[in-house]
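The methods section describes the discrete structure representation at length, but only in general terms. What matters is that the chain and its backbone geometry are given together, residue for residue. Nothing conveys this as quickly as seeing an actual entry. For illustration, here is how one protein appears when written out as sequence plus structure tokens:
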Amino acid sequence: MSTKRWILTAAVLGSGIVFLDSTVVNVALPRIGRDLPRLFLGVLEGQSYVYNAYLLTLSALLILAGAVNDFYGRKRTFLLGLVGFGATSALCGFAPNMELLVAFRILQGAAGALLVPGSLALLTANFSGEEQGRAFGIWAGASGATTILGPLIGGILVDTISWRAAFFINIPLVAVAAWATWSHVPESRDEQASPTFDWIGAAIVGLSVGGLAFGTIYGQQRAWRDPIGFIALAVGVLATIALPVWMQRARHPLIPLALFRSRNFTVTNISTLLIYGSLYVTFYYVGLFQQGTLGYAAAAAGAAGIPGSLFLIFFSPRFGSLAAKYGPRIFMAVGPVIMAVGVLWYARVPASSEAWKLVPGNPSTYIPPASYFIDFLPAAVIFGVGIMILVAPLTTALMTSVPVHNAGLGSAINNAISRVGPQLAGALIFVFLTANFYASLGSRLHSVDVSSESFRNSVSPLNMPSDAGLVSVVRDASTSSFHLAMLIGAGLLLAGAIVNAAGIQNQAARRKETAESEKEPASATPA
């Protein structure tokens, strides 16, 4: 293969294993809970920490990791991330108890934070023009593939080998990526960086993103009944407020304010917040509704969305090339509108839609009923077409909106926004929709105290009641809340489309703006 193909392979594998581990371990959690001894954690608590500890450190350290990539060298930092991810994956696979597994997952998330912004920085520094757009498309498609196939891969490994294999599978992938990086990736860094690294700014960013992420995750786990979640959110909010103050006063800030003078960079991050907020709400509530209300098995719920996801996997490279050639604005405006149509189709699904039926004699195979082809498949396909049109152009707009020497940092900021922002929005929407669900029940069940803790522990959108007389009422209330969630998701997508249509500039206008604001050539030569 050519050098550029090896660079692309390294970038795709490096980010792919990070996305893979955010989903593949989910399937292994029940087996981990049964097999691993525990010193002081409960089963459910331990399982939750195994999943969330990884996501928390990954989210909290993304921006710091992006700045480190640019400052210390992208090849060097990427290799460090690969070695760290491989080593911590092995430690997770050999973990003797739940508590050590949680500790190793924290370290694994820290290593993964070096890889996600680093992978896009490598592509930005080594590709240009339509070739760069296609590379971004392949990266986006591969990221979607690992996210979609993660549960399937995890299920096969857990059922045929062991839950430990879900971690060991990373090691050969890391080895290939590390060899490709060492042998073929040229070193590049921010040649305009200051001689000192802004560790104070890094601490403020860590408190900001980490506080918001931890507060959201912990608050949802504890149903917002524990003050620790609110305290963490308060720390995150205060740090977020302090961040721009520090950026203005610091001599060499971690995040230069000049980045946000780029119109495309600012607009892309705003639309990312809106669009990924919709993705979080849509994916969460579709799965919740299918399993909790309609009775889908977890495997069937996962399989139900695959047809639409195939568009992203196979056609993203083409739309990355088109965005590089014609500009990303039209794709970033049209894609979310089509996605919104798909989400609105979900909003018409009735409470009477049938669940996937288990194939007699085969405990792991399901067949879809006729209602699936009317209620869910069209929505999944329409949504898939929209996200196929959107993702690669959004990545192209983001990475061409920042100077090459800030590629790692620009990618990291957007990744942090796409992870933490939607969780915050999702938490607020969850509280609103839960209140709507119980209010709807209260209007139907006048003789039942729906506000009591015992009732809410036994009846929720995820748990149908054991009393057959209540099932239809609860199902109707759950369906009403699901429809409201889909309307909110569609609204966020349409808002993102409007932001993109009004704010994104295509390449010619953006290059003129960049040349005027930075006083440097419009098309930077890769380092």
Notes: DSSP finds 20 helices and two strands in the chain. Confidence is low (pLDDT under 50) at residues 512-527. The longest strand covers residues 357-358. The CA atoms of residues 10 and 177 lie 4 Å apart.
